[in-house]
Design goal:
The protein has 440 residues and is of the alpha/beta class. It is built from 15 helices and 17 strands. It folds into two domains: 278 residues, UDP-N-acetylmuramoyl-L-alanine:D-glutamate ligase (3-Layer(aba) Sandwich), CATH 3.40.1190.10; 134 residues, Protein-Tyrosine Phosphatase, Chain A (Alpha-Beta Complex), CATH 3.90.190. An eight-stranded mixed sheet has the order 4-3-2-5-1-6-7-8, with helices on both faces. It is globular, with a radius of gyration of 22 Å.
């Protein structure tokens, strides 16, 4: 008999099952998987994506392009923005409650007395669902790090590393070299590695060399060029010119897309992809909450950026966005992030701050956020504190004029709370005049 019948019951139970919220290591989760899988050979190809930023976009590109080419694709990502089901997708559709609950039951039976975390439960459930879905390829996003992350129990046919920056330093190390070592842990002997960021390559070379794994680095083994209305990609022996710009906005998305095309090229002996599928996938890929621009009066921009590197990219993209009036920021962050540095990056663009209590224990109190902003901004900028994300957003929208821009950024929790409100308002005749999405 099943332990629970409803998804929310399973999730509440999982949150308190393991003594630690995060418990990096593969021994426990691998032992459970061996019992749950009942097979040694996987029926699909595996691509694992690691990196500080850009993982979600790369997964979205791979998913959209492979599906456009006619392949059946499974994707596992985390965290979710609004609904837990977002984490597990088969052929572009989120797994339904019934499917996830059945997978939870299988994992629960397989684990016996082994304690596993909330994240490990989700990763194992996803893999269990994928086993029975008759897929051609599975794309796995690392939750944190790589070497000891639960998705690393599977041996990938290709490892894709996006960027390497300082985030989750309490778990992964305080230097870029330490963090790179953790992300390099997804590499496998003799299997290709794609490094989508030139700055990350030198941190990964040594590990790849020791494994005799061929590493393909942006700017060395493959390159791209933005032509304004289109872009070109090339590597040794292959060139693709006048590709359509990705629907996902931001210059950095070309870096992500270029790494993905290199990965597709290396996987082509198993999964051939024609140019038409690449074009279609680039324009179809969507990721909610990643520089998600919603035109209107006022305009709204949502971004889950929560570390310095991501916020720097966020600001670069904002500077390219036409903005006539004031910029109002709805903001909240976790206490374990480098909040001061994040504020310093974005403060020159912000006229008013609307601070949200995130409602979680790790969230930084709005009073402390206010102190940091006041110290960094230096120009008596207006700061208002709110008890939750929704009221902070409503306050910003109420104060905004037609030409203003409302930013929502700093945390998955923050964007996840506000995004449903934005999407509900789409169909109503109010200040929002365009559908939520990355492509405008």
């Amino acid at each position: 008999m099943s332990r629970f019948r409803k998804l929310d019951e399973w999730l509440r139970w999982q949150e308190g099952l393991h003594p630690k919220k995060i418990d990096l290591g593969l021994e426990r989760v691998a032992s459970v998987w061996r019992k749950a899988a009942h097979r040694a050979q996987l029926p699909f190809r595996v691509i694992t994506v690691a990196g500080t930023n850009g993982k979600g976009s790369c997964v979205a590109f791979l998913d959209a392009i492979y599906r456009a080419a006619g392949y059946r694709v499974g994707c596992f990502t985390s965290p979710h923005l609004v609904n837990y089901n977002e984490r597990i997708r088969v052929d572009g559709k989120a797994a339904d409650d019934e499917l996830i609950c059945a997978a939870f039951e299988r994992i629960d039976q397989a684990r016996g007395g082994t304690s596993i975390t909330y994240f490990e439960f989700s990763a194992l459930a996803a893999l269990s669902i994928f086993l029975d879905a008759q897929l051609d390829v599975v794309v796995l996003e690392v939750g944190m790090g790589g070497r000891l992350d639960a998705v690393n129990i599977l041996d990938p046919d290709l490892a894709l590393v996006t960027t390497i920056g300082l985030d989750h330093t309490e778990w992964l190390g305080s230097t870029l070299h330490e963090i790179a070592r953790e992300k390099a842990g997804i590499m496998r002997p003799g299997k290709p590695v794609v490094c989508a960021s030139p700055s990350a390559s030198e941190l990964l070379f040594d590990h790849a060399r020791r494994l005799h794994a061929a590493i393909y680095v942006s700017g060395i083994d493959f390159s791209y060029q933005n032509n304004g209305a289109s872009w070109d990609w090339w590597s040794e022996g292959r060139r693709m010119e006048e590709l359509p710009l990705p629907c996902l906005q931001g210059e950095y998305q070309l870096q992500n897309a270029a790494g993905v095309i290199m990965a597709l090229t290396l996987m082509r002996s198993w999964l051939a992809v024609e140019r038409g599928a690449v074009e279609q996938g680039l324009q179809a890929a969507q990721v909610r909450g990643r520089f998600q621009v919603i035109p209107g009066t006022p305009g709204i921009v949502l971004d889950v950026a929560h570390n310095v590197e991501a916020v720097q990219v966020f600001v670069e993209n904002l500077r390219r966005l036409p903005r006539a009036g004031q910029t109002k920021a709805v903001f909240g962050m976790m206490s374990d992030k480098d909040v001061k540095s994040v504020v310093a990056v974005v403060a020159p663009l912000v006229d008013e701050w609307y601070l949200a209590d995130l409602g979680v224990s790790r969230g930084m109190p709005t009073a402390r956020l206010s102190e940091i902003i006041a110290a960094v901004a230096l120009d008596n900028v207006k700061i208002t504190q709110y008890s939750n994300a929704v009221t902070a957003f409503e306050g910003a929208m109420a104060d905004a004029s037609a030409g203003d821009t409302v930013l929502v950024f700093g945390s998955f929790w923050l964007v996840g709370d506000i995004l449903p409100l934005v999407e509900r308002k789409q169909s109503k005749p109010n200040k929002l005049s365009a559908p939520a999405g990355n492509c405008i």
